[in-house]
């Protein structure tokens, strides 16, 4: 049996752009993608802390150290510049993999610069 668990999250990133007239996706600073282990074109879930919107799209690589979090296409209606987001990816694990399972949790500052990577929730 396989079970779905959180693979990685980018916690409380700030939306830097919201572009309706752009092919759908979410552009994310490559440093953040690499830290979280999220690949280009990988499906992601986005949870908007400001308005409660939750939606699915895919990740595209942004410039290193740019701090970019650009919600694009139809999803741009669900996030405005300045909104705080949680970006998550999930994976399917078998019972053996679950025994060694650890998520990758990435935390940023107010400019979307990586400050911490861990495997347990910071309180």
TrEMBL record:
Catalyzes the pyruvoyl-dependent decarboxylation of aspartate to produce beta-alanine. Heterooctamer of four alpha and four beta subunits. HAMAP family: PanD. Its main location: cytoplasm. It catalyses: L-aspartate + H(+) = beta-alanine + CO2. The modification Pyruvic acid (Ser) is found at residue 25. It is found in: Cytoplasm. One of its GO terms (molecular function) is aspartate 1-decarboxylase activity. Is synthesized initially as an inactive proenzyme, which is activated by self-cleavage at a specific serine bond to produce a beta-subunit with a hydroxyl group at its C-terminus and an alpha-subunit with a pyruvoyl group at its N-terminus. The gene is panD. This is Aspartate 1-decarboxylase. Keywords: Autocatalytic cleavage, Cytoplasm, Decarboxylase, Lyase, Pantothenate biosynthesis, Pyruvate, Schiff base, Zymogen. The active site is at 25 (schiff-base intermediate with substrate), 58 (proton donor). Its cofactor is pyruvate. Substrate binds at residues 57, 73-75. GO terms for biological process: alanine biosynthetic process; pantothenate biosynthetic process. GO terms for cellular component: cytosol.
């Amino acid at each position: 049996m396989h079970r779905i668990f959180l693979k990685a999250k980018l916690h409380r990133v700030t939306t830097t752009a919201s572009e309706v007239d752009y092919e759908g996706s979410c552009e994310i600073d490559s440093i953040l993608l690499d830290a979280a282990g999220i690949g280009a074109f990988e499906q992601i879930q986005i949870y908007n802390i400001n308005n409660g919107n939750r939606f699915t799209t895919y990740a595209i690589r942004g410039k290193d150290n740019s701090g970019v979090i650009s919600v694009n296409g139809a999803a741009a209606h669900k996030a405005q510049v300045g909104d705080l987001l949680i970006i998550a990816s999930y994976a399917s694990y078998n019972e053996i993999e679950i025994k060694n399972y650890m998520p990758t949790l990435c935390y940023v500052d107010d400019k979307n610069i990586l400050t911490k990577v861990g495997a347990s929730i910071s309180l």
